[in-house]
Design brief:
This protein has helices spanning about 1-10, 15-35, 45-55, 55-85, 95-115, 115-140, 165-180, 195-200. The chain is mostly helical and about 200 residues long. The chain has one domain (about 1-200). Helix 2 packs antiparallel against helix 8 (about 195-200) and helix 4 (about 55-85) crosses helix 5. The chain is globular and about 55 Å long.
């Protein structure tokens, strides 16, 4: 759902914003990669802060990571159901909508409860579904490209008023930056990976 926000604020110049956000997040990712090469355990930012600053700050960051995970899960469930509304009007019904929200969260909780084997299978299945969707979208929509839509590169609204371009860039950048932050959850399960130091240091 976020690409439409990027296109609205920066039009085709959103590609430049994507590259800037990718470079910025890469700097953060390199910090994670370097830190992960020093540890063999799981925990990501919690593990690093615990060893560097002690139990209190490790606990604080662990709680924050858990809260971030809950917010991310909630946002993705709501985004999925909001998208489904446009295809299936039944989700416009409040009982169906909120029932589906709690049902999906309960479903994911049960999957996690029964261990990493099921989680790994569901994760691989969802990743394959995402890739297939992207490939199908590209193949189908490449024939619908109209070069007249490539102008203007920057929206007119971003070129008028006091510092509008900076504001548009900033609002778009924050959205894109959010899209890239998922990598921070990967080292949480480092202990379940083969040679995690090599994986993250190599990345």
């Amino acid at each position: 759902m976020l690409p439409q926000v990027i296109y609205r604020d920066m039009n085709l110049a959103g590609v430049v914003v994507l590259l800037c956000a990718a470079i910025t997040v890469s700097m953060v990712a390199l910090c994670y990669a370097d830190l992960s090469s020093w540890f063999t355990g799981s925990g990501a930012a919690w593990l690093y802060s615990y060893n560097a600053f002690g139990r209190f700050w490790g606990y604080e960051l662990g709680i924050f990571t858990w809260l971030l995970g809950c917010c991310t899960l909630s946002a993705e469930v709501v985004a999925l159901l909001t998208t489904l509304k446009s295809f299936l009007p039944i989700f416009s019904n409040h009982w169906v909508y909120y029932g589906s929200v709690f049902g999906l969260i309960l479903f994911f909780s049960i999957i996690n409860f029964y261990g990493r084997t099921i989680v790994k299978f569901v994760d691989n299945l969802s990743s394959a579904a995402k890739m297939i969707t992207i490939i199908v979208f590209i193949v189908v929509r490449v024939f619908c490209i109209h070069f007249a839509n490539f102008s203007p590169v920057i929206p007119h609204a971003a070129m008028t008023g006091a510092m509008p371009l900076i504001k548009h860039f900033g609002s778009t950048f924050s959205v894109v930056f959010y899209m890239f932050t998922g990598f921070s959850f990967i080292p949480i399960a480092a202990k379940q990976m083969n040679d995690p130091e090599k994986i993250f240091h190599g990345s």
